[in-house]
Amino acid sequence: MSGVGAVSSFHKRGKARVVSIPGARPSVHNSQLLLSTGMPSLDHLLGGGLPVGSILLVEQDRHDVYSKLFLKYYLAEGVMSGHMLTLASLDESPQTLMATLPASTDREVDEDSATTTDQQMTIAWRYQSQSAPPASLASANRFSHNFDLLGTMEEDQVAKVDTCLFDGSEVESAASTGYYWPLLQQIERRIADGGLSTACNKAKTNVMRLAVHGLASPLWGWEFSRLEKDHQWHRLTTFLYGLRALVRSSFSVCMVTVPSHLFHDMALLRRLQALADFVVRLESFQGSDKETNPIFKDYHGLFHVVKLAAINTLVPPLLDATDWVFKLRRRRMVIERLHLPPELSETVSRSQEDTLTKPNTLACMGDKLPRNLEF
Amino acid sequence: MAAVVTRTVLDRLVSLKESPAPRLLLLTDTVEVCGRGLLYCLVCAHLRAGTHVLYLTTSFNPVELRQHIKDDDTAGKIEFYDGATDPCGWDSGESAECVTKSLPEVMRSRCKAGGKVAVVVDRLEHLMLHQDSGQLVRGLHTLARESEVEQVVVYCGRDVVCEDMLEAVTHLASGVLHLRHTQPCSCAVLVRKTSGKVIKAQEEFSLTPDFRVQGVKPTQNTGQVGVPADTSASSDPTPESLLAATTFSLSLTDEQRRAKNELLLPHTRVQTEGGQILYTPDQEDDWDEDDPDDDLDI
Would you give the end-to-end CA distance of chain A in angstroms? Predict the structure, then answer.
């Protein structure tokens, strides 16, 4: 790097192959276009991000506390990148969801320069004369943004984004037609208006983020209580199939949260899982006996990765661990590998002087070894 | 984020001190224990607080109910919707509207006197006989979201109503009270706040003749939310507790702190004076001031 603040002068010859969609980047495994879900740890589990044209199904925890946070991260990421948003929610008013998005912690670029000039460095004084490093990319072009759960995103920032909210109030005679078909039609209209369909030859400059909150809850329909033998699930499964078709044939991603603890017949859950591309399940420890288990004392719930998609590939990105947990810190939520706490009980280390007490036998030895042969 | 409950949740719930009050409150009982007393407690608490109560009754006559619930000296007044006398219309020829039409429509037709309103649905299972379950659940949800409605209390028997209806209403409700058949009477409380916090508790209580709840305390037996197992690191270690735990003395007295601040670090001298090269020649060095390049002849 020569000069102060100069970026490298090398440029690739020819037109860049990267599609210029804000907030998207090609995957390192295959060259699919990925979008961030708003949580870097979830992005890592999905293999870098959510591929454009896929559906992420999130099975809610019992009280829908943490899955709502997942949804808010997803929507907030869409707002920061300027994507088109479509949110459908019957349980909770979509206006409330959009009004309580977490605030972004990325400071604007021009605020940095004023603060660094007047500080006298005492220990690293040799670097005083060096200038500040070049400013990072503008926030709209970054892949994944940082959010702070204690703050709320400002309304004017949310208002800058093209949003469509579906809360079922415009659907007349909901008892006979249900909400599924009108929602599909609304999504199709949005795709057509934004020119996002893959059939349309226009160069795409934006993607759409779809979010459906609480699908298959009692307000959407009564499918959760029917058994398979009653053949009453087709509205819900056809809806998800239609949603998948719309998302596949357009530049959009979708996140659907489902209260799977209500389902009487697990076969319905299997069908929904088969229709979605990525499936994760949240199991929170609130009120269960796992809350008092010392293994889980630092965490708030288990995070199960049920299904990972292999879109245009043979194998999905492999995870190196199978037990994941999520933890809600004050400012953000993270998903981590489950580490067992160290075994600190007294029986593990024996005192060498005390030969009278029977030592804890190792797993490889039986009880029958004489005492003077102990290691 | 469930809390280990030390204050009584039931007390706050019934005396309406819980804020924000749960919009949809489900109260269930069984054949063995009757929850009607607790229901009347809630109604009287609303009346005393000045909220008008709209009471949809399907089992008892309004006349009989007025003998128990008195609104003469309270700020709020109670209004009954009679779904108990003749719901199917065998005598009058028309079925009662309050049980066949959806709940928001029934409540909307009431002439608005202004002010907050609490809605009580007595016996959900009787309403289910006249309406479709999906429509009923949607009606409850819409009603709970209206701005003038402060609380919707739904009373049902959990051994009578079908499972999926109970699960559906529990999923939508922000407060659930399940009465248990124990001696003394106790209930399992679940409150779901809008901030995301979930509070669960099991508490026993008793009722006074004028429908107040008294003597609430958590139950002592196995149902209570347990204290997490005691491990060596019980809470996040703060710097002070870490300092107290080590055998080194890491803290500074004032005098030591002053001496530390005044200490001249070697790099500050260099900073002020600039760098210098100090060279002392050895014995073997031939220190010659001349420049050896002088005798170059170019």
Answer: 60
Q: Which residue in the set B1, B167, B231 is minimally distant from A262, CB to CB?
A: B167
Residue of A nearest to B190 (CA): A287
Which tens digits make up the pLDDT trace of A155-194?
A: 999 999 999 999 888 887 777 788 999 999 999 999 999 8
B145 touches chain A (CB under 8 A): yes
CB A324 within 8 A of CB A315: no
Q: Tell me the pLDDT tens digit for each residue of A303-341.
A: 999 999 888 888 888 888 888 999 998 888 999 888 877
Q: Which domains does chain B have, with CATH numbers?
A: 9-225 (3.40.50.300)
Mean pLDDT of B246-255: 80
The tokens describing B38, both together, are 């607790």
Query: Cβ-count burial of A317 within 10 angstroms (0-12 exposed, 13-18 middle, 19+ buried)?
Result: middle
- Count of A–B CB contacts within 8 Å? 76
- Top pLDDT among B237 and A242 is at A242
Which residues from A are below 8 Å from B134, CB to CB? 175, 218, 221-222
Mean pLDDT of chain A: 82
Q: Do A65 and B225 touch (CB under 8 A)?
A: no
Nearest one of B135, B64, B244 to A173, comparing CA atoms? B135
**Which amino acid, A283?**
E
Min CA distance, A291 vs chain B (Å)?
A: 7
Question: Residue B228 is nearest to which of A217, A292, A300, comparing CB atoms?
Answer: A292
Q: How far apart are CA B258 and CA A319, in angstroms?
A: 54
